[in-house]
Amino acid sequence: MRKVFFSVFAVLGLALFLVACSSDKDDPMKPKKEEKKEPDSQNDPAVEKMTNTYKYVNYFSMAMMSNYYLWIDEPSVQNALKTWSEADEPKAKVKAVRYKDSSGTDIDHWTAVYDHWSEETKFVEGVSTTFGYDVGLTYIDSNKDGGFSTGDMVFAYLTYVSANTPAEKAGLKRGDVVWAVNGIGLDYDNYYDLVNNKMFGASPVTLSTGYVKGNTVYKTDNVLSLTPVEMYVDPVLVYKVFEVNGKKVGYLHYTGFVAESYKRLIEACQYMKDQNVTELILDLRYNGGGLVLIEETLASMLAPEENVLAGDVFLMDIYNASRQQELGNEVSTLSTEFEFTSGGKRYQYSTKGSNIGISKIYAIITESTASASEAILCGLWPYLGESNIVTIGQTSSGKYCTGWMIGCDDMYIKDNSSYWKQFGIDYQTALQYADDWGIYVMVGRYADKDGKTRSMPNGLVPSVPANDDPLDGYALGDENETMLKVALKLAGKTYEEQPDARVAVDKIFKRIKFSRESFLSDKHIAFPEHTLIMK
């Protein structure tokens, strides 16, 4: 079984110890101490708290990026590191340090510091404060000039609704339209706030709903009141089996590689194995990624069983030059036995006996397919064969990096107290101010067993283009749902062709590319199993 973290902090300790012996002026690792004028609010507890928080989070964040950041050798990153001050606002500083191209556009969109770490790590388990839906956005061009501008009406449409959530209990379903939030109609000027902060907020909300018939959106007087709840949301939305020309074709719709989902993944794959499934439609269209070990769990049931039992290489991580020289490639192998800690909970389980035995995958992907959901296809390709993974849909996100999740409370601990004294830091004091901060830092590029990363730099390009159409009137898993229908046709199913009752959503309306602020979006996550010791 893959060891998520090798002995990284022995290496980190050596690097930082050598730096600690140099002067502040020449020390590229140590945040600069700014000479501050004494403010009138010097004794203000809030100012003191913020000052100390920034200090300790900056020491932590700079240590992580200086040693493990994938692009640490880039001149622009090195230059940004030299200006790091202990008084910098940590979120903004980490964003400023991230690797960019010559025009200043982020190449690394993902490395970030978070100030509610305990809340963010819940997402890794699949727990969140949620209404239980996801949405797409479209607008009707009021001026017919081909541009999105003031005056244009916006509609949200539900792409899926998860089981046992407030949305499902309120009767909402895929394809429902929302035209007003808290009584305010969506338009060009307000849609981002109303959708991101209200429809995905932590407070009760009212939704004015509508529907699509033919090529027209109809508003209704129906207003639903929903209150979000903190709960585990099952990312296995649908699994089932289709009979196609005498063979069994499985279907699995999966929205996130979260820790608790291993049970349902094993359940789904065991069911398909029992049904003698030989081909699989793997629907990852809304899957933004998640935990590496859950990705490996699913892969263990999809890869050829002989390769799994042999423990063959599934993926490797390729690090920055100095880490690569010291450590080589970190390799994950196919396995049936899993044991790891996530969110303080210990997981131990086996997928032995649940390998489906498939010979072909039809993978449904969109621009929302990211990270772990791209990586699993990358890792499986050499084993199933070039022609036996067929990608259907739209070009995926292009998140080709592995990130480590590290909390300040993993670093400011008693075992590291002698290390922190080199910087004049008492670990207990640091933890008082920085205990609920953490970093998700890009440390490697994932690649298949042959060193190839198919999703780099701009995503997986589908071999069969197709558009997602949540307004087609069919539930996910229905054989007539637009993208599933394409996959089933490729698997050999024949349909009695009928005239389309309506044109697809992108032909009627104009889609708004919208990325809501979710921690689990675009994630390929590994984090330490053991206490991190710095020497």
Overall description:
This protein is of the alpha+beta class and 535 residues long. It has 17 helices and 24 strands. Helix 8 (262-274) links the parallel strand 11 and strand 12 (279-283). 44% of the residues are buried.
How would you describe this structure in keywords?
single chain; 535 residues; alpha+beta; 7-stranded mixed β-sheet; 7-stranded antiparallel β-sheet; 17 helices; 26% strand
Which parts are unreliable, with pLDDT below 50 for 5 consecutive residues or more? 1-29, 528-532
Structure annotation, total helices: 17
Query: Mean pLDDT score, rounded?
Result: 85
Q: What is the CA–CA distance across the termini?
A: 27 Å
Helix content: 25-40%
Radius of gyration equals 25 Å
The major beta sheet can be summarized as: 7 strands, mixed
Q: Describe the global form.
A: globular
Strand content: 25-35%
Secondary structure: number of strands = 24
* Secondary structural class: alpha+beta
